[in-house]
Write a sequence for this structure.
C-alpha cells in the first residue's frame, strides 16, 4: 500500500524510505495502491486508491476542500483516501475511503501521529494500555461502531469520515459520505424491474471483471456463485487465470468443473488445512492491526507464495468475491418477516416447503407484534439477553429494536454495518493479505456503485424463486445451470472447522493454560474450558458446531494478547 504519514509524532518511527511532501507529511509508495500528487494553486493533496479515482478531475474538488466543503469528495468515484493541505500551513484534512479499504489510525498524545500504516501506529502505541472494551467487543462479534481502537490512545477514522487539524492542534471529525438507506416499499417486483436491477449490476461489476484480462491478474475461484459470476463477466473467460485453495474436496471439485466448462486456466493449490494461527510472528507482530479476524489470512498468503514459486509469469493482482454477501444476501428470518408483513402468500408457501413451519411461525409472531403496536412494550419488558459467548464477562454491544417496516430496518442495518468493528476487521484482513503478498487486491462487489444499488433493493428483490442473490443469478448466462441454482454453501462455521483441525486442538489447549484474557478479566476461564471440552467431544462427522466462530475469536484474541506482550517486551529493550 502507498502509505501516508501525518504529524510530528510519526517522525520517531518513520520508515527510512519515506519521502517528505511537506512539513510533517510523508509518503511511502508501494505497488498495492497507486498514488497521485495534486497541485492546484497553493493547495496540495496526495491521493491513494483505485485508478478510476486517481484519474478523475480533482480541480473542483480541491477548490471545494479549500473552502471547507468536504462533501465534494463524494463526486470522486471508487476507493480513495488522502491528505489535503495548504502549502506552508499546519492545518490539514485527511479522509478515509467510503468502505474502509485503506485504514486510517491516529493518536494525539504526546504529539499527533496519523497514518495508513498500522505498524507505525502500533510501534508508537507499544507502551499504551490495551482497550478491554475493544477486545470484549471483538469476542462478542464486533457489533460496536465507535472509533476507539485496541490501544487506549489510538482511534480509527470510520469509512467515509474526514478529520481536520485546527491551527491550535485539535482534531475535528466529520463525514464526507454516508451510505443511503432508501429501500422502503417491498411490493412484488415486476419482471422489468428485476431485469433492470440485473442490468445495472452487470454494468457495475463489469469494470472490475475487466481487470481479469490484464497480465498478472488472477481470480480466487471457490466454485460458488460470487466468484463464478466474476469469471463469467470476464472479457475472455477462456484466457482467465484462476486459483482455488484446496481446503475442501467438494469446493475443489466444483471450482475445477466450473473452470473447465468455461475453458479458464485453473490452478488448485494444496494448502494443509491446519490452524492458520500457528505462525503468530508472521502476521500478528503489529499491535495496530488488532487480533486475527479471519482464517483466510493465513491460507491466502501461503497459497500465493506457493503459486508464485511455480509460475513463470507475474502475479500482481488478485480479484476476489468478498462483499457479495454483504451487498446481496438477506437473513432468511428478515425476508420471512417482510413477506409476512406484506401478506405474500405464494412466497410464504414456498418458504414453508423449503424451511419448515417453525421459522415461518416466528416471523408471523413478529409481524403480528408489530401490527398490534406491541413492539415497544415487548422490548421494554424483554429480559436482558444472555451474554454471547457464554464465557464473556462483559455484556456485548446491543441496540434496541426500532419501530419501522422490515424493509427499512434491513436497509438501515446494511448502511450502518460499514461503521461496525466487524466490518473494520474484515477490511483489515483484506489489507493484510495485500500487504503480505505485495499485490493489488481487487473486490468488485465492494464497488461504490454496487453498494449504492444494493441499498436501494428491497427484500423482495433479493430473493427470486426461493433463491438468494436473485440479481446476481440473473447475470450467469455463461455459467452452468447447476452453479446458478446452487444454494449458498459458505459458512463461517465450516471455515473455522477447517482452521480448528484435529491436529491443532492440543495447541489450542496449551494456549489457554495461562490465559491473558482471563488475567484481564475479559472471559470466565472455567466456562470457556467447558465450551472447549464440548467442542472436542462432539462427533467429527456431521454439521458444523454453531459455536465454532466464537471459539475461533477467543483463541485469536488470546494469541494476539500473548504475542502483543512479547512484542512489547522485545521492542521496549
Amino acid at each position: 500500500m502507498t502509505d501516508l504519514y501525518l504529524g510530528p509524532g510519526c517522525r520517531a518511527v518513520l520508515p527510512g524510505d519515506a519521502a517528505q511532501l511537506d512539513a510533517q507529511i510523508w509518503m511511502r509508495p508501494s505497488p498495492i495502491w497507486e498514488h497521485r500528487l495534486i497541485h492546484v494553486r497553493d493547495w496540495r493533496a496526495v491521493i491513494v486508491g483505485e485508478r478510476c479515482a486517481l484519474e478523475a478531475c480533482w480541480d473542483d474538488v480541491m477548490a471545494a476542500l479549500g473552502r471547507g466543503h468536504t462533501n465534494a469528495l463524494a463526486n470522486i468515484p471508487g476507493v480513495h483516501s488522502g491528505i489535503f493541505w495548504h502549502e506552508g500551513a499546519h492545518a490539514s484534512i485527511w479522509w478515509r475511503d467510503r468502505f474502509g479499504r485503506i485504514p486510517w489510525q491516529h493518536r494525539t498524545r504526546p504529539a499527533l501521529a496519523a497514518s495508513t500504516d498500522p505498524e507505525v501506529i502500533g510501534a508508537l502505541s507499544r507502551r499504551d494500555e490495551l482497550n478491554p472494551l475493544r477486545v470484549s467487543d471483538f469476542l462478542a462479534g464486533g457489533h460496536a461502531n465507535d472509533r476507539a481502537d485496541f490501544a487506549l490512545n489510538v482511534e480509527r477514522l470510520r469509512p467515509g469520515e474526514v478529520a481536520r487539524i485546527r491551527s491550535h492542534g485539535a482534531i475535528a471529525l466529520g463525514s464526507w459520505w454516508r451510505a443511503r438507506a432508501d429501500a422502503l416499499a417491498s411490493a412484488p417486483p415486476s419482471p422489468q424491474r428485476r431485469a433492470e436491477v440485473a442490468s445495472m449490476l452487470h454494468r457495475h461489476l463489469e469494470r472490475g471483471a475487466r481487470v481479469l484480462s490484464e497480465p498478472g491478474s488472477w481470480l480466487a475461484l471457490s466454485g460458488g456463485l460470487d466468484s463464478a459470476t466474476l469469471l463469467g463477466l470476464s472479457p475472455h473467460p477462456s484466457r482467465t487465470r484462476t486459483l482455488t485453495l484446496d481446503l475442501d474436496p467438494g469446493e475443489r471439485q466444483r471450482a475445477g468443473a466450473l473452470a473447465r466448462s468455461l475453458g479458464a486456466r485453473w490452478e488448485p493449490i494444496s494448502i494443509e488445512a491446519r490452524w492458520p494461527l500457528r505462525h503468530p510472528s508472521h502476521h500478528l507482530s503489529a499491535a495496530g492491526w488488532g487480533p486475527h479476524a479471519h482464517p483466510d489470512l493465513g491460507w491466502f498468503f501461503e497459497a500465493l507464495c506457493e503459486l508464485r514459486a511455480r509460475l513463470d509469469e507475474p502475479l500482481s493482482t488478485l480479484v476476489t468475491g468478498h462483499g457479495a454477501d454483504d451487498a446481496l444476501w438477506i437473513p432468511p428470518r428478515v425476508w420471512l418477516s417482510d413477506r409476512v408483513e406484506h401478506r405474500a402468500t405464494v412466497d410464504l408457501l414456498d418458504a414453508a416447503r423449503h424451511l419448515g413451519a417453525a421459522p415461518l411461525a416466528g416471523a408471523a409472531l413478529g409481524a403480528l407484534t408489530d401490527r398490534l403496536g406491541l413492539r415497544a412494550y415487548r422490548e421494554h419488558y424483554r429480559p436482558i439477553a444472555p451474554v454471547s459467548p457464554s464465557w464473556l464477562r462483559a455484556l456485548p454491544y446491543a441496540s434496541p429494536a426500532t419501530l419501522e417496516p422490515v424493509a427499512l430496518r434491513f436497509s438501515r442495518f446494511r448502511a450502518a454495518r460499514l461503521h461496525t468493528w466487524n466490518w473494520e476487521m474484515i477490511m483489515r484482513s483484506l489489507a493484510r493479505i495485500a500487504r503480505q503478498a505485495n499485490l493489488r487486491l481487487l473486490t468488485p462487489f465492494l464497488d461504490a456503485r454496487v453498494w449504492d444499488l444494493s441499498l436501494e433493493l428491497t427484500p423482495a428483490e433479493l430473493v427470486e424463486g426461493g433463491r438468494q442473490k436473485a440479481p446476481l443469478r440473473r447475470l450467469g448466462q455463461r455459467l452452468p445451470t447447476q452453479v446458478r441454482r446452487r444454494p449458498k454453501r459458505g459458512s463461517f462455521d465450516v471455515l473455522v472447522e477447517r482452521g480448528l483441525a484435529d491436529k491443532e486442538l492440543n495447541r489450542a489447549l496449551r494456549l489457554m493454560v495461562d490465559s491473558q484474557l482471563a488475567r484481564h478479566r475479559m472471559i470466565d476461564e472455567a466456562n470457556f474450558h467447558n465450551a472447549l471440552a464440548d467442542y472436542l467431544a462432539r462427533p467429527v462427522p456431521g454439521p458444523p458446531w454453531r459455536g465454532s466462530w466464537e471459539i475461533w475469536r477467543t483463541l485469536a484474541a488470546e494469541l494476539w494478547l500473548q504475542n502483543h506482550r512479547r512484542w512489547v517486551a522485545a521492542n521496549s529493550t
